[in-house]
Design goal:
The structure is a homotetramer of 254-residue chains.
Chain A (H helix, E strand, L loop, with lengths): L3 E6 L5 E5 L6 E4 L2 E4 H6 L5 E3 L5 E5 L3 H8 L9 H10 L7 E5 L5 H10 L4 E5 L3 H11 L8 E4 L13 E6 L8 H7 E11 L2 H13 L2 E15 L6 E2 L2 E3 L4 E7 L2
Parallel strand pairs in A: 7-8, 7-10, 8-9, 10-11
Antiparallel strand pairs in A: 1-2, 1-6, 3-4, 5-6, 11-15, 12-13, 12-15
Helix pairs in contact in A: 3-4
């Protein structure tokens, strides 16, 4: 029994995400209804028609799909264009123990948990309790919640209860106030990543990274450009995301 | 005993990659020698001085570092800016069974193996035997070779011996000739990624994807922009990589 | 007496363009009315309040402003991000005689006319008569119409009545059908520019440019990225224009 | 008699710029010599062979060509990707009177002079005398020097001797120190442009623009991407210019 799926409109190419469909008998679109039996009996990739005859492609939901189409969010999230690269640049692999400050809606924790599973763990700190509940709900996806420990703490006043982390990710408003604590919790030489949206924050973070003797400092921005895919008229899309954040990497010096 | 390390010049910020250092007694730079005892006794992140007094930061080598600084290559490789996103967009996770055509120097296989370890496996096809040997050497990194099966075959004439793949990655010169075979080896609804550098190839691939009834077709380009990190003069680097390839994703229709 | 102006909302920073205001007694905004006497008596750059007290900055209209905010359009236009560079790359200067095919709404003709005034002239061909009327209306701006000659002709069947052009600009759907004619009308060695939106068109144009022995062929794309300007939170805008067209330059070989 | 030309190598597509050729009898390339008679007798766009038989395309030199290939420079210059847009955004047209601070090698003055000729003038201030001489040499191109007035003054201590400018362009290291003076010299509501390379400078300029009551503030960055032009393998160039400067526009408030 599928509990979630995406239907892609065969005409408009719009995506519709459905969840908890194992408890329903049919799902409704603006262009008609589809029975859950059809959803369960047809393989992914099938064309299914609504009772009005409109065709949809039945599609499974992987982690990228979930973050783009299914994630419940109350915050700005770390988008796949950034999160997969961050996870890769941090060198995350099965078994790693990773610190996160600023769980938010959990999108970054999902990607990092997927990278360190099944033997590693993400230790995520978040001062706003309701975001922890929201992120836990998202992290049920593919049981990623099994690879995350949650702490409802504010690092501007609280301490980090763990240490010897293989990597750290910080997404908070004034990260310079907590970077020394985060650095102290890292293993020697390990990488830290900080995500901030403004020039002003980049400058403050760079100043603090010098103060705490981090090295191999890198600031990066990632852009993804999409294209229209009609074979006779291939061309870039008219508009694109121009900014999410500046990504700052460094290693802990000793 | 460390078998590889990176030294980052504290003045110029240049990287020097060393391997097989467990068999040496010292390593040599243009600015003097460093004893292997120092490399082994100091923690990562330490400043070590050459016998001439020049300072270097001692740094461990993670997968991103290895691909950027250590990889032996005889081909154009898939760079981290593309490979981590591709792995993420394909939804790779522990346990997945992934098809690859065009192993090349093994850079993409390394990233995908890291994503599906410890329970998954990459099945990689490469028609040029010497690239398999080269890639095997690279894949010794972090024992990633344990998660890759190699086939020295040419898909324009040979068949794919496996099936039921969770995802596929194709990096070959005329991919349209083999996409039907690759698609046949995928599970229903699963994602395929094709990487090509030219407009002309994008158009041919898109035509073939229509013919083999793939859907949810997306063409993307990824850019990473680096910045100079002096806190008083933060600014983008003067030059950047403008193109590696167009990344084409689709799902197998049924 | 001003005949046009822009009001910039001091709170939202929205632009409102007004024209033919010399015939009115007041102008109306969603936030109240402003008398034409105020518009005429206050210098540009002044803050003027509506009868409801809402503040606007009174602003004159230059060519860039007109194209962005005042142009009447029924077609895709050549935007300033492209048109000023094209005019510059073509080497346009006072006195030049320039050929244009595809007048459209006249945005490119305005920029080129501004570049060759007061002694030069743009000879613009357009097969759709109503666009000529539309463009003429736009070209009244700053009397630029004085520097444009209009021909209601279709170059796929008609001939070019002039010759010895210093430069040429082509913005049409299948430019490869007319490039030989355009090239014949150019002086030896002079530059031609073609604007097309798709990969497929770029390929066809490049093939034709080889056939007609053009050289120094260049294909370019221009991007402009805007920033939010609050001094304490400077950051790139979230979204940007990702594509208007590919700009193809060449010189006429002999 | 031509006094300058460009030869484009028909094989490598490299450009070679020559000047003062009216005083020579032949010009020399690595691949052989060409007589000045050939240069003068063949029209632009011709293929000319060296005495060793190597083919070159003979090409005239327009303003864009001169800035890219002929300009004598001792400074970072404003490149065409930025300068033509700046001139356009400032609304420059024949007859305008424009202020410039920071003449440098004269590249921006050339573009602005070309825009305001024949009836306008650029008033350019430069504190380093030798740059004025250098720029004057460059501005001999196409007699653009006729449209520029030079002042060897340092605006951090000296005053601006003129007023009622239609537009202003500032390219100096700490522009915030002089913006009030520049603003005072502008006509009401007119546009100013400031070019700076770093985040830190952008922030300081934005603060000062608020202090001097400028409005309609815009910060922009321009990118140009080049493509390889073989019709069968069209693709973006591998590398591109990623940064020259941030372009800050505003209008003078009253």
């Amino acid at each position: 029994m599928k509990d979630k799926c995406i239907l892609i409109d065969c005409v408009s190419n719009d995506y519709i995400y459905f969840e908890n469909i194992d408890k329903a008998s049919q799902i409704s679109t603006h262009k008609g209804n589809i029975s859950i039996d059809d959803i369960n009996n047809y393989p992914a990739g099938s064309v299914i028609h609504t009772h009005k005859g409109h065709p949809y492609r039945l599609t499974d939901v992987d982690l990228h799909d979930y973050i783009m189409f299914g994630l419940k969010r109350e915050t700005q999230i770390v988008y796949p264009k950034d999160s997969f690269f961050i996870s890769g640049y941090l060198g995350l692999k099965n078994g790693d123990k990773v610190f996160e400050c600023g769980l938010g809606s959990g999108a970054m924790a999902m990607v990092m948990a997927n990278s360190v599973a099944p033997d590693g763990k993400i230790f995520s700190y978040e001062k706003r309790e309701r975001f922890i509940e929201l992120a836990k709900d998202n992290l049920k996806f593919d049981n990623l919640i099994n690879f995350v420990e949650f702490s409802n703490k504010d690092l501007e006043v609280d301490e980090i209860g763990e240490g010897d982390f293989d990597a750290a990710f910080v997404d908070s408003k004034e990260p310079w106030n907590i970077l020394r604590k985060v650095s102290d919790s890292l293993k020697a030489g390990k990488k830290m990543c900080i995500l901030v949206p403004t020039f002003n924050q980049v400058i403050e973070v760079l100043k603090e990274l010098k103060r705490i003797h981090h090295f191999d400092i890198a600031v990066k921005e990632i852009f993804i450009r999409d294209f229209k895919t009609l074979p006779d008229r291939v061309r870039p899309e008219d508009r694109m995301v121009a900014h999410t954040g500046f990504i700052i990497f460094s290693r802990k010096g000793v």
